Structure formats: C-alpha cells, structure tokens
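anyone seen this seq b4? input:
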Amino acid sequence: MKVVLQTTLLVASAALASGAWAAGKPLAKECGPNNDYVIGFSQANFKEPYREHVNHELERLVKNYPKFKLVIADGQATVNTQVSQVENFMTQRVDLLMISPFEAAPLTPSVSAAYKAGVPVIELDRKTSGDNYTAFVGGDNRAIAREAGEWAAKTLLPNGGEAAILEGLPSSSPAIERLEGFKEGIASNPKIKLVAVQPVDWMEDQAVTVFSTMLQAHPDIKLVYTSNDLAAAGAYIAAKQAGKADQVKIIGTDGLPGPSGGIRAVADGQWAATFTYPTGAAQALELAKKILIDCATEVPRNILVPTQRIDQANAKSLYGKEKF
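predicted toks r here
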C-alpha cells in the first residue's frame, strides 16, 4: 500500500524575497545554462545506513546534471563540524548549499547566515529552526509515523496491549515529529497502552540496551515502534535475547534496501513492517536545477516526497526487485 503524501506547494514569496533577494529576481546571484556550479552538501553523518543511501542516490543522480559538481562533507554527527563545513562552503563560494542538520537549533545561525548572504539553501530530510532557507525536501515525518500508528492500532494490536517507542535523537526534527505522529496514530485505539518511550539516538547498540531494559520492566510489551531501521534492528536483537521475538511486533522507519536493510528484515519475518523514508535526492537536484540553471525567481517552499508501507504482503516481492 502506498501512502502518497501530497506535495506541498507552499511558496513563501516574502521569505524568498527577503535578505539578499528582491522580488522577481533570480534566487541565485549567478545562474544560467552556460555556467558550471558547485553544490556543497553537509550531511549529518556518514555512519547511518540511511545517510549512506542518501549520499549514494545523490552521487548517482547528479551525473544527470553535467553542469553540477557535488561536494559531500561528513558532519560526523557533531554540530561544530557541520558549522565549520557551512562556513568553509561559504569561503569556497559554493553556488548552492544543501544540508541535513544533525541538530536543528544549533545549526540555525550558520545556515541563516548563508541564506542571508544570498546563497540558496536546500534543507534535505531535516530542518533548521526558523524560516531562513530556500526550500525543504523530505518526507512528512509526522504523517509517516501517524500512518504507522494507525495501521498498528488497527492491524497489529486490534485488541490492545502494551506498546513502546524507541525515539531517535530528541533534538532533531524527524525524531520529534515521528514520536508525536506515532502517538497520534495509536491513540485511535484506546486499548493500546504506551508504557515506555526513550531515545536511542538512531543507534542500533543503544536500541539493544534500551529495549532490553524496557522488556525487563514491562515484560508484556507486544509492539515497539522505532524511529529508524537501525533502532528496529536493535529492538529485534533485544527481543530475541529475551526470548520474545515472537511476542513483540516491530515497526521500523526507513525501508532501506540491501541484505541488511529493513525490507529484508520484514521479508524474513523479523519485523512486522517498515515505512520507507524517501531520500529526496531526485527532488533536491531538480530544485537545484531550477535555481541555478533555470534562474527561478521562486520555488516551492516545501516538497514532501511519498512513502510506502513495507509489510508481509509486499516485502518479499519488493526485496526481489531491489538492486544493490
């Protein structure tokens, strides 16, 4: 079942015209089809499989844009590193900045400074605070998680039971939105009792430790929602170690391909489901083309790309179609 999240075309004309730009002028200081352009991308980290997947997609798809040179920097999951990267990109005079902020608030000043200096900014997957960016590309985290919660409430625990949540990094926008969205979703079934919520910072090893402790405190947990596939993998390890792999239904988020990805885990029956979180790579590069090549004077403020539920009904067929 595909859950197509409607692309939001909320063009914030006032925001786009602020700072270095005047209304009706191109978003980029230098633009046009005859120039070559450098795009600097500060990726939150290179450790998470999802981030590796995003990088791979960008590197694959940017080949379709011969005027673009894409430079991807490893944020190393630290705010200071990403702040330095943004400053370095500004010093290098990149034509467009892309960023997936590790944390929202601490990175806002440096990203805002780049935007106000006239550099178009595309935020990919995660947002900074405030409105000082050109466009956001990503999935609707709240809607994805709400869909997961509603589906779980109706299909996995129709008669109720105890549930838990393994949250991502609490200071990141996706973790906050996924936590809130899933709570909203399972609220559709008042028989479900949420007994434990704790962050695991997106990490598998933390998920193993945290969920093991949760199962000791609440041995009747029947469902765990995890904010990413790594956490789901950790939850499965913990459940298996506790002898509860058949008792606990696991829902992941990412839907990553490959032998160690979420699609395979669902196909093998380890998890009940995972919800794909799209990379947005194609949409981000197309936005960059509109801004740099086509000299756009405005672009959609938010581009929300579609998700898909991977469950027992489709996991094996989808896994068989994946190319690794």
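Residues 1-22 have pLDDT under 50 and may be disordered. The domain at 141-277 is CATH 3.40.50.2300 (Rossmann fold). kinda curious what u guys think
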